[in-house]
Structure formats: structure tokens, C-alpha cells
Amino acid sequence: MDNSLTPLVLKRLLVPTLLHLGFRKTLTMADEVVLLDFWPSPFGMRVRIALAEKGIKYEYKEEDLRNKSPLLLKMNPVHKQIPVLIHNGKPVNESLIAVQYIDEVWKDKSPILPSDPYQRALARFWADYIDKKIYVSGKKVWQTKGEEQEEAKKEFIGHLKMLEGELGDKAFFGGECFGFVDVALVPFYSWFYAYETCGSFSIEAECPKLMAWVKRCMQRDSVAKSLPDQHKVYDFVLQLKKKFGIE
Amino acid sequence: MSKEKVVLLDCWVSPFCMRVKIALLEKGVEYENREEDLFGGKSELLLKSNPVYGKVPVLLHNAKAICESTIIVGYVDETWPSPPLLPPCAYGKAQARFWADFIDKKVFEAGTGIWRSKGEEQEVAKNEFIGSLKELEMALGEKAFFGGDSFGFVDIILIGAASWFYAYEKFGEFKIEDHCRRLSAWLKRCMKRESVAKVLPEPEKVYEFVIQLRKMHGIE
How far apart are CA A145 and CA B192, in angstroms? Predict the structure, then answer.
């Protein structure tokens, strides 16, 4: 086969055949990755961190949650919530599900979940605990006053202490390496200043080991670049409080 | 080679425990079932194995404890890979996990609302419950099972919950069949499977249990 014929063979025969056989990933220019997100959302931050850990280039689209885009409503018709990860036009909803998806698709770099099934089950258990407890109890801290707030603070600190206990003397929740549970929890750090200021307490005083873990995480580029400034989040919370007529 | 020791801390009426039992049966895993008396007093083993929540189910595999039913089913699927419960591709897995999460968030909450309330509150819960089933029915589409041709992850997650559907229907005075024909057909299809037929208790027994629960909560 001479030189002039090879490009033609490639274009007309080889490429379509390989595409048909599912070699799309290797042959297309790049994966198209879009993230529908809202800057103060800890759930959105989880996905940002996972994408950064894997070095994936993506388009970030900020959603106005008071005026949700047609794209968001189309991609997440069930919950109509962010974050939504859109990979080559297909949506993946729910932050922890999106993080697992990212870990499985881009599996050759920086694993997020451990490979052992028991360790994976443990990681999922603690990520689920964080989902059930941290957001809701944290919200109560800034949304309430007086006696109700005192109760909320106790509950919130209790959950953080439980997590601190689970961390123990490990560098990260999974052990030596930054992983799934760290990704699930560290975004809430961006809300700590808001919780502390609204509730008049210090998380450092209550959970020093957890704060040491936070500092360790913040040394990672993926985390530092994905979390907004705590004071910006606090200003946002003040606006929310005004809007809901709190204080 | 030492024999694998698999123990399940169980409660016969728990839809969450049913999921795990079905998954183990589907995989042909031999296990020891230990019934917990959740009202009489939880066993020391349960409190030690699940110190965070103290709830069933807990799977003990070679003395290692795995908690939370959906996580346990995932663990069973990964540890005993054949036959697979989750689809092979990452996107299929994400879709399955999404619907499992939806079932956990919406179906139980609304269903609990039906047996735990009366009047206006119950009507609202009923509508939410039917609404959640309709969403699931759309996800099912024309497929035999949620995973396609084979009984899989989402089917297992939902069928456990379905053991309480008869009780919801009696309390809410409605029939799921009238609202979700295709989902009703899916229910009948699942009940034909050996694992499901073996695990799910008699609907009347569950209904009687819920009557007792209502009394305990001081309703009616």
C-alpha cells in the first residue's frame, strides 16, 4: 500500500470501523464534560474535587437556583437539583454517585475509592453518614436561634466528633491516601466559618484533629481550587438569613 | 481453605433486611440468619457491629461488619460477582445507584406517611407515594426488570419495600394496580422468582405487624 492510499484507507475504512467497534474514547478529540453547579454547594464541590483529582477538563456552568436553566431541568427532571455531571451528553445526578462514576470512568489515575470490597463498603458507609447528618444539622445551626440553636449546635458537633473518631490517627479517612470520604466531607469546611459565626462556637476547639485533617486536605490543589472562600460563603448565608427572615 | 462465614443480623419484617437476603440467595451464598428482637432488646452483637445506628441489617462476613442495606447489596455484588446485579458499564451503574437512592429517599418516606397518619396528612402521603411509584414506572419503561432482561440491583432495592405495599394499600384505601399497571406487572414478575418468594413474608402478616406499630405510636 503506497503512502497516498494510506490516509484514504484510514479515513474511509479504518476510523469508521474502529468507531463502530466502540473505540470512540481513543479516537474522538476529547470527552465532553460539563458540570451544572452552584458555587456555594458542598455537593457541587465534591464533584469539582473529583474532576480535579483526575485532571479532567470540563465546562463549569453556574446555575441560578431561583431560575433553573432548561438544561438543568432536562438533565435532572426527577430532583431538578445541582450538581449534574454531563458526560458526552449523558447526565449523572447525585454528587456521591457522580464521584463514583468519575472514579470508574477515569480509573487509571488517582483512585478515589479503595479496590477492596470491604474498604469500599466502609467508605460508602461514612460518605452516607455525612450525607444524612452534616448538611441537615449544619443548616439548623445557621437557621435557628436561642434554645433551638443550642440543640442544633450540640447535634452538629456530635456528628463531627463521630467523624473525628473514625478518622483517628490516620492522615485521611481512607488511610494514607486522600479518598472518597475525604471528598465527601471536606467541602463542608467552606461553611465552617458561617456555622461558627452564626452559632458562636469554634470547631477547632471542639474537633482539633478534624481541623488538622482539613489543613492537610487544603494542601491539595484539587481541594484548594474547588472550595470557595469561607467569608464569601458567610456573606451568602447572611443573605439567605435575610431572605428567610431569620434574625 | 477455610469456609467463609456469613451471618446476617435480621428482622423478618424489615424491607431493608429482605434486600440483603434476596441478594445472598441470588448469589447462592450460604449464610446464617440471626433474628433480632428489635422491641425486646437488641443483641450485644448488633450493638457492637453497628455502633453508629444500632440497626438491622448487618452483614458479618468473616467477622467484618457491613451496614446499610444498599451498601450491603453492593458489597455482596462485588464480593460474589456471579451473577452480576449491577450493569457492567459505569453509566449503567450510575443510573442503578440513582434509582436505588430515589427509592430510599422517596418511597419509604411517603409509605411511612401513609401508615403513620390519618386524614389530610395521609392523603398527601398517598399522593406522594403514588407519584414516586409513577416515576419508577417511567424508569422501568417496557423492560421486564429495571436492569433490563435480568433481575438486578434496583429490582432488589425496590422489591424489599414492596413487601409493605399491601399494608399501605389497606391503610390508604387504594390499589397500586389502578395507578401503576406496569409496576404491578413487574411486582408479579418478581414474586415468581425463587429468592423473592422465599424471602418476602405474607402480606397479611406484614399488615398485622403495621397495625401493632400504629397502636404503639398511638395512632387510631
Answer: 55
